[in-house]
Every structure is written in C-alpha cells, then in structure tokens.
Design brief:
about 500 residues, alpha/beta, Rossmann fold, ten-stranded mixed β-sheet
C-alpha cells in the first residue's frame, strides 16, 4: 500500500467558516475526500471579522500565539488558532490565522460589504497570511510533502517558500490551483517592498507593470491545476481569458492540468438535506413539489396549483462573468414566457438597481434576494425545475452539478466546466442531462430556455431527463483520486 502523504491545503475561504462561492465548497470537500484516501491533510485559512469563533469552535494553541510577521519595514502579529472541518466519515485539522487589523476588524473577506469596494490593503493582508502559513509549519515542526495553494490570495506563498525558506521546504512540492483567472491579485509595483522581496525578483512577481500574485504562484509552483479540462484548454488558447498569463503557462505546458470538481454528497444530497421542506430521491420525485412551494413563498411569488409553470433559479455571484447582463438584455422575451424566475446572490452593486427594477416590473414572475443565504440556496436547488447558468466563462461551476444531483435540470452556456459536466438533451435518443447553448447572446440563451420549457410540458419526458442527471456519479471520489495521483507523481523522486 502506498505511503500516505502529508498535505497542507491553503485557502482564503473554507466552508463553513467563510464562503463567497465555489472555492469554499472545494476547500471543504476536497480535503475531506483526500483524508478518506488516507492522507494526513490539514487546512489553513484566515479568520475574517464575520466569522464566529464560538460557533465554529475556534480555539487558541499556546505555541502559535503572537507570531511576529514582517510586512515591509513594519511588523505585525498573527495568532494562529485551531479548529476542524468535518463530515460524518472524516475530520480534518484546520489552522486559522487571526490578526486584529488585517482580518478581525474587517467583516468582508476581500471587499467592504457596505461599498462593495476591495479593501485597499488586500496585498498586505494576504502577504501577512502567506507568512503565517510558513511560520505555523516552522513552529509546529511539520514540513508537509505537499503545499496545495488556491487562487490569487495564496499566490504569494510559493514565492515566499522558494525565495525565503527553500532550505526548510526543499523536499516539499507546491501545487497551485487557479479557480478563476479573472481575479489575479494585481497591485501597484510598490507592493514589492511589502513582500520583502528585492527588485531582482520583480520579473517573476510582476505582470503588465503590476505585482501579480497569480503570476507569482504560477512561477514558483511545481504544478498548476485548474478546475476543469475545458477551462484549461480555453485559458491556454485565449490571452484575454487569462489576462495574458497564458504566455507564462505555455512555457511549462506539462505543468498545467485540468481536474473537474465533484459534489460533496454529505452536504448536497436531497435524500438527507436538512434544509429541505421535504426530502426526496429519484424514486420519490413528487416530493420536489413542496420544496418548490416553499421557494415561491420565500420569494413572494404566486403558487400555481392549476397548471405546470416552470420555476427557473439562479444562485450566483451577481457579476458580469455570470451572465447577468444576458438576463437584462433578454427581459422582454424572457418574461413573456409562462415562467417564474428567482435569483439569489450578491456582488457588483451596479447590477442591483437594474435587477430590482425587473422585480418591480414583473412582480408575479421575477423575484430577487440580494444576499448570501446557504439554507435558501439548498432549497432553491431542490425546489426549482431548471437552473440557469449563462456564464460568459465558467472555470468549473458547482451549482450545475448540485442541480443534477437534486433533479433540477441545468440550462448552461457551453464554456469551461459547464461544457464538461452538462450534455445537451436529445429527444430522439433520450440522452443528455440539460440544455446547452453556445453563443454568449440573449438570443442563444432564450432559445435554450424555450427548448427546456417545451420539454417541461411533457411530464413523462421531463422526468426521464431529470433521472438522467440524478443517475450520474457526481461525488468527489474521482477528483480526489486524480489529485492523489498528481501528488504522488510529483513526490515520486522523494518517496
């Protein structure tokens, strides 16, 4: 039997402590799945001001108190605390970085909730966090085989390891997973002084005349992964999608791997989901109906008992990437249809008044909740008939996979992970799991919604389509095994 590996999984958010999107779900589910494969894996993340230490059972570790952290010419102090993430089968140790100025005093994770604007010291905050990761390993006397970093917030960590602490971590391999190339952590060149690196390191750390944390992560990591095979191909082929970083990636093409996420079936499972009005599985699809009624009631929309009216849901960050503009562009034709539409999310404040105006204009067809509500998100996955993801680009996407598990038919644009996980329904063969459109236009999206609505009118055919999705294996086991094999391939010279 292969020797278990020691793995430190470093992330800026992890469920249930902090969540803005799919990164938090991955940071929860993948470590637990890797733990089930026998690896010694631990998670490390910051503690933002909105996280309750009592609720999340976060407590102090004496030897990890008041750790001095350099930020340029100044010094600040981290206290790293202990907690865990759990599911019914596994438990993973979590280390939580605290600091009154950088994290505890800020309710938002990356942006001020009141204004939606990024915190001006985000560069310092995540340089500080990166240093705290290294100091934690040193103080614990634990040098992992693998350090697995995620997204721009941890991109500076591989640089800190290789440029400042390589003697200690000489045998450690670094994997850097990019969940979204659209957010790269780019800052003015003066940020270089805050990192403690010299001007001689600037080329490896900068891109387009800015310090770029993602570029640093790519340059100093042993392997780069992204979150679906199609997204990996798209990024390598499209300079715009990668903001020019595809040139950096192309210099090391053998180091770029696309691995699609799975679904944590302990958390997302209609048979056991405590948030649902009525639980169900593929043998009791009639129990979706009470959940639909609850969703409609929560959103203030009428419940139709006399006819089949499809309920379309979106649970999303309200940002341009997610196709919000297509909804606005399609307004007249979309709400002519005999449908109901609910949207839950938060993000770009400039979209809020436009969406609120739609809700006022079509009060019986469209309702909006500008907030993050995990319980309602679960309920919407169960209660909706269709789940819309018209993304401009989508690295992986989890909600379309949740939808398949919950018997809610996805309508998606063929991009990134959406293309890898949803197949277009073919009436003749009965094969397919959803409705897929190609062009990023309101017209193309509306055609897919039209097609879905027509199939919805045939209840027998619709139920067969629903079962196609529910019968697929969406668990994290496949992705965890791929990561485990990748770790071992990197470590083969060391074991």
């Amino acid at each position: 039997m292969a020797k278990p590996l020691s793995i430190l999984f470093v992330t800026s958010e992890v469920y249930p402590f902090a969540k803005t999107g799919g990164l938090a779900d991955v940071s929860y589910s993948l470590p637990l799945a890797l733990r089930e494969l026998g690896h010694d894996i631990r998670v490390m993340a910051p503690k933002y001001g909105s996280i309750s230490e009592r609720k999340n059972r976060i407590h102090e570790i004496n030897r990890l108190r008041d750790i001095p952290i350099p930020i340029g010419d100044t010094e600040s102090y981290a206290t790293v605390k202990s907690s865990s993430i759990n599911n019914p089968r596994s438990k993973v140790q979590a280390y939580i970085t605290t600091n009154s100025n950088y994290f505890d005093a800020k309710k938002g994770f990356y942006a001020d909730p009141a204004t939606g604007l990024d915190y001006p010291d985000n560069d310092e905050r995540f340089v500080f966090f990166g240093h705290s990761v290294i100091q934690t390993c040193m103080l614990l006397g634990w040098v992992p085989d693998i350090i697995h970093c995620n997204d721009w917030q941890t991109g500076i960590l591989p640089a800190l390891v290789r440029l400042k602490h390589n003697d200690l971590f000489a045998k450690t391999k670094i994997i850097y997973t990019i969940h979204n190339f659209g957010l790269q952590g780019d800052f003015p060149m003066k940020t270089l002084t805050k990192t403690g690196f010299s001007s001689g390191d600037a080329d490896a750390l900068s891109h387009k005349k800015k310090v770029n944390f993602m570029k640093a992560g790519i340059h100093f990591s042993d392997c780069i992964t992204t979150v679906s095979p199609t997204y990996a191909k798209e990024v390598l082929a499209d300079q715009k999608l990668s903001n020019g970083l595809s040139d950096v990636l192309k210099t090391k093409p053998d180091r770029m791997v696309g691995i699609a996420h799975g679904v944590d079936l302990n958390t997302w499972n209609p048979k056991t989901d405590a948030y649902l009005t009525k639980k169900y599985d593929k043998s009791s699809l009639e129990n979706k109906a009470p959940n639909k009624e609850t969703v409609l009631e929560r959103f203030g929309l009428p419940v139709h008992h006399d006819k089949r009216v499809p309920l379309i849901a979106m649970v999303t960050r309200i940002i341009d990437q997610k196709g919000i503009q297509l909804i606005l562009d399609a307004e007249k034709d979309l709400f002519k249809k005999d449908i109901q539409f609910v949207l839950l999310g938060e993000g770009d404040h400039s979209f809020y008044p436009k969406l609120e105006a739609l809700a006022k204009k079509y009060p019986e067809k469209f309702s909006l909740r500008i907030e993050f509500d995990d319980e309602l998100a679960h309920l919407m996955e169960a209660g909706a008939d269709m789940f819309l993801m018209p993304s401009k680009y989508e690295p992986c996407g989890l909600n379309q996979q949740y939808s398949l598990v919950y018997g809610t038919v996805p309508i998606v644009r063929s991009t990134g992970g959406l293309a890898d996980t949803v197949t277009d329904f073919d009436k003749k063969t009965g094969e397919g799991t959803g409705f897929v459109f190609k062009d990023y236009t309101a017209k193309s999206m509306l055609a897919a919604i039209d097609k879905a609505c027509k199939h919805y009118d045939d209840e027998e055919q619709w139920n067969a389509l629903v079962l196609n999705g529910m019968n697929e294996d969406r668990s994290w086991g496949r992705a965890a095994r791929q990561y485990s094999e990748l770790y071992r391939a990197l470590m083969k010279d060391m074991l």
